[in-house]
Amino acid sequence: MADSHAASPLAHQFEDLEQQQEAASLGMWVFLATEVMFFGGLFAGYTIYRNLYPPGFEAGSHMLNVTIGAINTAVLICSSLTMALAVRAAQMGKRNALVTFLILTTALGLAFVLIKLTLEWRHDYLEGLAPGLNFTFAGPDAKSLELFFCFYFIMTGVHALHMMVGVGVLSVLLVQAWKGHFGPNHFNAVETAGLYWHFVDIVWIFLFPLLYLIGGRY
Amino acid sequence: MATAGENLDTRVHYLNANYGIKSWLLTTDHKRIAILYMASITFFFLVGGIAAVLIRIHLIEPNGAIFEPATYNKLFSMHGIIMVFFFLIPSIPAVLGNFLVPMMVGARDLAFPKLNLLSWYIFMTGGLLTLYSVVWGGVDTGWTFYTPLSTTYVNTNVLSAAFGVFIAGFSSILTGLNFVVTIHKMRAPGMTWFRMPLFLWSIYATSIIFILGTPVLAITLVLVALERIFHVGIFDPAVGGDPILFQHLFWFYSHPAVYIMVLPAMGVVSELIPCFARKRIFGYSFVAFSSVAIAVVSFLVWGHHMFLSGQSVYAGIIFSALSFAVAIPSAIKVFNWTATLYKGSISFQAPMLYALGFIGLFTMGGLTGLFLATLAVDTHVHDTYFVVAHFHYIMVGGAVMGYLGGIHFWWPKITGRLYPDGWARLAAAIIFIGFNLTFFPQYMVGYLGMPRRYAIYPPKFQVLNVMSSAGASILAVGYAIPLVYLIWSMRYGPVAGPNPWGAKGLEWETPSPPPTENFEEIPVVTEEAYAYGAKEV
Amino acid sequence: MWQGFQIRPDQASTIAQGVDYLYYFLTAIDLFFTAVIFLTIVYFALRYRRRSEQDQPKQIEGSLPLEIAWILIPLGICVVVFLWGTSLFIRNSRPPAASTEIFVVGKQWMWKLQHPEGVEEINELHVPVNQPIKLTMTSEDVIHDFSVPAFRVKKDVVPGMYTTLWFQATKTGRFDLYCDQYCGTNHSLMRGEVIVMEPTEYEQWLSGGIRGGTMAQSGAKLYDQMACITCHGTGKGPSLTGIYGKPVKLSDGKTVVADDAYLRESVLYPSAKIVEGYRPIMPTFKGQVTEEQLLQLIAYIKSLSSQEGKASK
User: Are residues C233 and C284 in the same domain?
Assistant: First the structure.
């Protein structure tokens, strides 16, 4: 298929395409390191409080819907698969496959956020489990339970925000892909976005057991 | 040295390549972005400096000469927030780093020029938001925002100030990212790691801290903001939260942050000493590795701000030991710089005076860090003026002098013009004297027990406070003088030529000011850094 | 002028001189190395000043022996200072067993102090000379810091937890007390004095000031008022006799010591730790007791530790 933008414009500061691509990759890895530290602060706080208040955190965890969480986990893992396939399609110059997989990834990402918003968060809010907005739980360990839900909302919220940024980036790439912008010599942006997407997925892989699966069940 | 009479406007260079405000505000040229940063941080320095002047005038009287305590509290908070986040942290990296990193590695620009411009806009957005917060209404938590004071007990502009700092943090992160990728991937042929100028090693180490530390501050500020908005209790013991957790998270960034402030200044000194002694730096690899060692160990010592916070004795002991360890690489640098002077050919232009002043003041101030790392002594001097004196010795006597030394050294490259060295040396001397008069008495009044952040203090501390304020007036004069002659020189200074100092380094092999693309052809590096001396061609 | 000139505060406690000696040593090190570097630089600057533009100094790479020397020597000094400072600190963190306990509650912007005998003070702390005093402290609002420079002691006073410091005053007199953690508008006014008296004077002062009974007696009254005995005296809740300072086995298998912090937590957050063999039915008394009252309750429970007389005197 005609690929009018197959050769990427070489930015003036680089000597050759290879340098440009390596720089972009390294840049994304460095950025992901900053994201690890950003989420790391939250994970550290969570770990400390979980150690201090095991009963409250366990009780809070049991109030989360493991089924929905598991579905969302599956959604994200699939989206990582479609993302990887998108990168491969770009690498092989297959425009239609690339567009398809980008659409699928975006859709799965949106699905994740929608499921979370409508099925989980809305439900938690209505149940009186939203600290600061509507928190009415009054049983034992109410305070540490509230703390658990603080961390739950903040951690999943920051994660969802990152997902939305990812969805935004993928949408832009989608438009560019549809215009035939990518090819075997020029797919760096897709690969870099893929790195970001996989990272956000991995954060969820940590979040899910830490938040949803405390203390065993059934 | 200067080619007198050259009309700087006949040759095309980065300053006259295009004109008009859009060409500056939409530039992606790292050199122009450096100048944008230079203007911004000078502005913030003036704001923070005015706050400092007001504080020192106020402290002439034990009962406070001018302000009510509530206003004084806003003043010292403003001084700290503006100076730390909007002057010291960006200063050398964003101004000198942006200008020099591509030139020193032999590249045409940084790896991501548009990201670089974005960094500046993010910085300005954060800076203006914070400026608004601290000036209109004010913030009175101190720059350290301790909880639950900042989350629950004050109703000043904490939220917007925290948000402003949060935004500005992304500017740091992106700048650090840009530097790391540039240094890794864009070195000219022949520029191995160990042929890089030491300034690059320092910038690299600083960038590691930018990248790994700043995000933790970001998330901490997010948590404080959420707590203020939703009253959720993450740090509020009334609802089961832990106020000390805030301190851990805050200092996890803010301790490495102080090395963000001093490492680049050390890098500047590592450039100045070889040039003005005309000798290769003594112990190059030791100085290079010490920068990285400082960056790494700096992440392990944050608890020394918390010896008395209620954390366990054992934690205190571990943090104390590690804090001693972090002093060693700094000592290595000081000894190597001094040894570089041995059998050199030393000249004393202003940049060298700043470098030598740095070494003296950093040695004295850095060693007072040992006092603070010593558990039993810190118990007595924690949160007193002793601490204030310590960090001002490093940040002002160290980092600011490093910044000024660097500005004076690279000024001819940046502007194509020379400034009057007589005035520059006079200013350096005034700054050195004024600085010591301002801050040395603070060590003494601190050991006597005067707490910091006091708007009103016991009269027995007055004499030392008055001495400090008198010194501050001299220091202020010292800072004002370079502003005048540097601006003057931009129009009326003699033309500098490519290398007025006879220095080694790729940046000196270009015209002054350099063309937008830095190099006609990318250079090929065949010699070590600082190849001064008889050995080569 | 010279009589008023001091480089250090009064040495009014057993540890003050030790801290000062370490400080002098550090000062000597600092001034020594600063002088060495400064003088070396001055010497080199003069001796090797540029004499002509044609100067070609010999290029010296470095010297491994020198590098090792100036790593090991500073490291050695650091180790010495670290060990000296740490050992002082550990000693200064462990109150002697026979310490008199006094309780401090900080709040914006004043200090409230309670003696076990029941005397309450504001911004002033009377203590006897030559006796170890242990302060157990908490805050009602933000983080404060209790600092007495003349004793070389200082500790943050944190809401939600107890922190402690101890000192033994070695001379009588009045010594400055500062709040040393920025705590809001009137932080610089949150000051007071520690007044050290001869033991007999102190006893006199103490007996003159008692209003409503000792802290333990006040605690007993509270215990009554809040009907704690309905559970703790009937087997529904664990008996509190003799538990202070002893290990307690919890329902999750862990064992904790029943110290001040544990007792405070049990009153405010009873479900945080459940004693083995009991059901989690204790209601919380958060909002119903002030920090001072909590300290009085704890004093009462402590007094149940030994049937023959008070434990802490």
Answer: yes
When the pLDDT of each residue in chain B is averaged and rounded to a whole number, the result is 94
Q: Indicate the SS3 state at residue B128.
A: helix
Q: Identify the DSSP state of B88.
A: I
Reduced to 3 states, what is the DSSP secondary structure of residue C14? coil
Domain stop point among C178, C194, C209: C209
d(CA B398, CA B401): 5
Q: Which residues have CB under 8 Å from B508's CB, separation 6+?
A: B413, B498, B499, B501
Q: Do C182 and B316 touch (CB under 8 A)?
A: no
Q: Which domains does chain A have, with CATH numbers?
A: 34-212 (1.20.120.80)
Determine, for residues C156 and B309 on separate chains, whether the beta-carbon distance falls below 8 Å.
Answer: yes
Tell me, yes or no, whether C257 lies in a domain.
yes
Q: What does the pLDDT average to over A171-182?
A: 91
Torsion angle of the four alpha carbons B300, C80, C72, B269, in this order, in degrees rounded to the nearest 10: 60
Same-domain status, C203 and C221: no
Does residue C205 sit in the same domain as residue C298?
no
Tell me the chain C residues in contact with residue B343 when contact means C-beta distances shorter than 8 Å: 48, 57-58, 60
CB contact under 8 A, B347 and C49: yes
The ipTM assigned to this model is 0.92
A141 touches chain C (CB under 8 A): yes
- Say whether C155 and B308 touch across the interface (CB within 8 A): yes
Same-domain status, C205 and C219 = no
Domain count, chain C: 2
Residue C252 lies in a domain: yes
Largest Cα separation within chain C, whole Å, is 99
- At A159, the amino acid letter reads H
Residues C175, C239 within the same domain: no
Contacts of B510 (CB under 8 A, 6+ apart): B103, B413, B498, B518, B519
Q: Are residues C117 and C180 in the same domain?
A: yes
Phi-psi region of C103 (alpha: psi -120 to 50; beta: other; left: phi over 0): beta
Distances (CA, A) of B374 to B302, B386, B390, C158: 14, 13, 14, 23
- All structural domains of chain B, each given as residue ranges with its CATH number in brackets, are 29-509 (1.20.210.10)
What number of CA atoms fall less than 13 Å from residue C41's CA on the CB side?
A: 24
**Boundary-marking domain end, from C159, C194, C209:** C209
- CATH number of C112's domain: 2.60.40.420
Q: For residue range C192-225, what is the model confidence (pLDDT) as tens digits?
A: 999 999 999 999 998 887 677 888 999 999 999 9
B339 contacts in chain C (CB < 8 Å) = 60, 62-63, 66
Closest partner CB to A143 (pick from C252, C269, C280): C269
B458, burial (CB in 10 Å: exposed 0-12, middle 13-18, buried 19+): middle
| Minimum Cα–Cα distance from C25: chain B residue | B371
- Chain A residues with CB under 8 Å of B245 CB are 45, 48
Residue whose pair of structure tokens reads 């704690």 in the numeric block: C228
CB distance from C224 to chain B under 8 Å? Answer: no
Chains that touch C (3 or more CB pairs under 8 A): A, B
Q: How many inter-chain contacts (A to C, CB under 8 Å) are there?
A: 10
> A57: nearest CA in chain C?
C272
Q: Which domain holds residue C283?
A: 215-303
Q: Which amino acid is at C290?
A: T
Q: Does any domain span residue C163?
A: yes
Task: Please tell me whether residues C198 and C270 are part of one structural domain.
Answer: no
Report the distance separating Cα B528 and Cα B526, nearest Å: 7
Tokens (6 digits) for C10: 């009064």
**Distance between CA atoms of C126 and B162, rounded to whole angstroms?**
42
Q: Are residues C168 and C228 in the same domain?
A: no
CATH classification of the domain holding C248 = 1.10.760.10
Tell me the pLDDT tens digit for each residue of C246-303: 999 998 888 999 999 999 999 988 888 889 999 888 888 888 899 999 999 999 999 9
| pTM beyond 0.90, yes or no | yes
Place of tokens 């016991």: B458
Q: How many angstroms from the chain centroid is the CA of residue A56?
A: 27
